Amino acid sequence: MMKHASVALSLAALGHDTRLTIFRLLVRAGNDGLNIGEVGQHLGMAASTLAYHLGTLVDAGLVTQERQGRQIINRVDFDAMHQTVSFLTAECCAGVRLTQEDAA
C-alpha cells in the first residue's frame, strides 16, 4: 500500500501539463514503451526538455527506463499507476462522520 508521501510525489509529477502529456502517451504505448526520440516525434518536443520531464516521472516512480543498446526505453510502471489510483479511491463512498474529538 502506498503512503501519502509517495502518492503526493506521483501526483505532483503528474500535475505539470507536459509531464501529464508524456505520461498519457506512454500509457498508450503500453509495455513496449518509447524512446526519447519517439516521444519527441509524437509530442513535438526537444530531447533535452523530454529528458528533464521524464527524469521527474522516473523519480516519482511512475516511469521506468531501460537501456537497450544506445536507446533508453521509457515505460509506465503500471503497478505504481494502479497503486496511486487505488490509494485515491480506497475509501470511496465510505462516509465521513465527525467524532466528538474531531468537533472539539
TrEMBL record:
Residues 1-96 form the HTH arsR-type domain. It comes from the Bacteria. SUPFAM superfamilies: Winged helix' DNA-binding domain (SSF46785). Keywords: DNA-binding, Transcription, Transcription regulation. GO terms for molecular function: DNA binding; DNA-binding transcription factor activity. Signal peptide: none annotated. It holds the Pfam family HTH_20. InterPro entries: ArsR-like_HTH, HTH_ArsR_DNA-bd_dom, Metal_resp_trans_reg, WH-like_DNA-bd_sf, WH_DNA-bd_sf. This is ArsR family transcriptional regulator. It comes from Octadecabacter antarcticus 307.
